[in-house]
Amino acid sequence: MSALTLASAAEDATALEAAEAQLARTAGELAGRVALLTTAAGRDPGAAERLRTGLVAFCDRELLPHATAQEAVLYPVARTMPDARLLMVSLAAEHRCIAELVDTLRTAGDPADAVAHARALQVVFEEHTAKENGLVLPLLALAPGISLATLLTELHGRLAPDRPAGPDRPADGERGGTQNDVGVNDRTTRTDRAAPTGKTGGSGGACGCGAADEKAVPELDVRGVPHALRHATVFGALDAVPPGRSMVLTAPHDPLPLLAQIEDRSPGVFSVEYLERGPGAWRLRIGHR
Known about the structure:
alpha+beta, Translation Initiation Factor IF3, four-stranded mixed sheet, 7 helices
């Protein structure tokens, strides 16, 4: 069934699709950050601490303001619908739970605790997002006399002063120096430059400290991630990688379209080195210049 059959007006159908996609992207970005934190926790406590701090900043910038805006704009309207009243009470309580999990993650004392709190946050947020996308947004889109498009415009207006929207938003305050002293033309994210498997490819493949210990580099395996969330998961992980550091991506196929999106999203910012080229997995070291 298409979104057009779930909305009372064409503009609401378009708004419904965009809102669902945005929530799914946020869930994917959160999953990517949690995955990197999980792999780093057992390899490099220093990297895990940086990733924990970045994850908290992401939540402060993305998850919590959006929850506040939802409760100010969408939830009061949905509560006027008898069939949705108890659902909205439950979702508002889940917002409190998400905020408490972020605060717990903020004060996590060691990498193991951070991973446990981050995974709990991911699970709760993904369940919450499923209810938003599967119940709340369609109900508002279908309701006569309610303009979902207008409501979402107001919601985005509340968020706009605090954070930019879309894939070009900065990561954890670290994205400012993308045109750094490496030079954007010294290396590119061209995927036709084959690197010998298992060898580093210069500064783009190093961890930023001059070491080539691959075990210290966090790894993101997206082979089990649903296809619809896969790219958002990678973008979330990349946003958590600070300049001079790298991550290893494991994919089920040669991720050429993804690499093109990364370059379009952040021109000249990331270098790519193939560590393994199939057939069961493609492993790439992606370095933030």
